[in-house]
Design brief:
38% helix, 256 residues, Alpha-Beta Plaits, 27% strand, elongated, four-stranded mixed beta sheet, alpha+beta, 2 domains
C-alpha cells in the first residue's frame, strides 16, 4: 500500500526483488532451513545472490525502490550489500498501521508462523512447494472519496518455524489417488501410481494407470480425474504438482 501510494513499482523484501505483482530476481529468505540462514538471505550477505539483484537493477533501471526491513540497521545493510544510494525517506510501521494491527500481526507470526509475501499466490507457488500457502485478499479504504487499496498477497508458513523437517511418503500420494478413484463412478480401479521428484525441487510428477468403467467418455473422464488429483494433493500436502500423466489401461464391462 505504501509503494502504491508513492508510485513505487519495485519492492525488496526477504531476499526478493518484486516488480508490481511479479518476482523478477532473488530467492526468498523464507525458503531457508534455519532462522539464521533466513536473516543472511534477507540481508543479501551472499555475493552471488546480491549480484543477481544488481543485474536486475541494470536490466530494469528502477526509478525508486521500497525496501522492507525490521530495523534501520537491516535496511542499511541491505542498501550497502546491493550498492544502493542513500535513503530519501524512511516510513515506520507506526506510520501506516494501528497498534491493534501490529499486536495481532505479531501474535499470528509467533503462534502460527505465518508470513506475508507481497505477490499473488500463483506467482510464487512453484517456488514454495512443500510450504503451506494461502492467498490473502486485501481491501483497505482510506476514506469516503479516496480510491481503496485492493490487492492479493500470499501467506506462507515456513516449515522451520513450526514443524521442523518433514517428508511426505510416496504412499500418501498413492493413497489419496486411490481414494479419489474409489469415489469416482467412472473409474473401476487405480492400477498403478508412480511419483517422481522434479529436478531442482520445484515439485513432483505423477504417472497414473487406471481401468475405466464402460460407457463413459474416456477423454473427458481422464481430464476430470487429472484435475481432481492435482487439486486434492496440492490442498492436502502443500506440494506443487508439475505434471500428471494418466493412462487408461483397460475398460471394465459389468456383467449386466
Amino acid at each position: 500500500m505504501v509503494a502504491s501510494e508513492r508510485g513505487i513499482k519495485y519492492i525488496i523484501d526477504d531476499g526478493l526483488l518484486i516488480k508490481e505483482n511479479e518476482v523478477i530476481a532473488g530467492v526468498s529468505a523464507k525458503k531457508a532451513s534455519t532462522k539464521i540462514e533466513t536473516v543472511k538471505k534477507a540481508l543479501f550477505n551472499n555475493q552471488e545472490e546480491a549480484r543477481e539483484i544488481k543485474k536486475a537493477f541494470i536490466k530494469y533501471r528502477p526509478e525508486s525502490i521500497l525496501i522492507l526491513g525490521t530495523s534501520d540497521n537491516m535496511i542499511k545493510k541491505i542498501r550497502e550489500n546491493l550498492g544502493l544510494p542513500e535513503l530519501t525517506e524512511t516510513i515506520y510501521i507506526t506510520d501506516v498501521a494501528t497498534e491493534e494491527e501490529m499486536i495481532e500481526a505479531r501474535r499470528i507470526r509467533q503462534t502460527q508462523g505465518k508470513h506475508v509475501i507481497p505477490v499473488p499466490t500463483f506467482e510464487i507457488k512453484k517456488d514454495f512447494s512443500g510450504f503451506i500457502l494461502d492467498p490473502l485478499q486485501i481491501f483497505k479504504s482510506k476514506g469516503k472519496d479516496a480510491t481503496p487499496y485492493i490487492s492479493e498477497k500470499s501467506i506462507i508458513r515456513p516449515t522451520f518455524s513450526y514443524l521442523g523437517n518433514f517428508k511426505i511418503s510416496d504412499t500418501v500420494f498413492r493413497q489419496i489417488i486411490e481414494y479419489l478413484g474409489k469415489k469416482t463412478e467412472s473409474i473401476y480401479k487405480v492400477n498403478r501410481v508412480r511419483i517422481n521428484n522434479i529436478e531442482g525441487g520445484e515439485g513432483i510428477a505423477l504417472y497414473i494407470e487406471i481401468t475405466l468403467m464402460y460407457g463413459y467418455n474416456i477423454v473427458e473422464e481422464l481430464k476430470a480425474f487429472k484435475k481432481k488429483c492435482k487439486r486434492e494433493i496440492e490442498n492436502q500436502t502443500a506440494m506443487n504438482i508439475e505434471t500428471i500423466d494418466i493412462v487408461a489401461k483397460g475398460i471394465h464391462v459389468p456383467e449386466n
